[in-house]
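Residues and backbone
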Amino acid sequence: MLVDKIASKRPCRVLELGPAFGANVEFLSQYSSKICIEDLYQTLASVGPLFTGDERTFCPVYETLLPYRADTRFDVILLWDLLDYLEASDIRRLIRHLGRFCQRGTLLYALVSTRQKIPAEPTNFKIVGKDQLLYQCSTTEERDCPRYRQGALLELLRGFRVERSFLLRNGMQEYLFEFV
């Protein structure tokens, strides 16, 4: 789903918001002229409580953690399953910040669980082929899943529309959003 779109945008600029894995960098390098990697969940976990105050105010946390030049534009943003680990208000803030670095047609890839329970920490995803991901959980502990539905996601991901969506056998809903 994503690879065909990336191939059509070659060369593209990718923002990878998961951990840096050699397999992912190697695979994305075939299509990308630039790859920026920030393991956002681990970085946020190390910072502690994220936000206080009015949700409408701009969030300096993301400006600090994802400090890109004003003229930076990404063609692809890989969120993986990060949305399942953020509160709705945190998603809004993140997307508001990322929107500054999107252009018409920017793709955002996300996996959202439809199950009641998810691993206590985000899953590690490694790209092992054009249509294949390797999933690795770092813990056996579980937590409740927010189970964001498509309508709620569209409210949270202002500026994006669903390009494609596919329910995987493992209960993950694969989304490809497009910035409009």
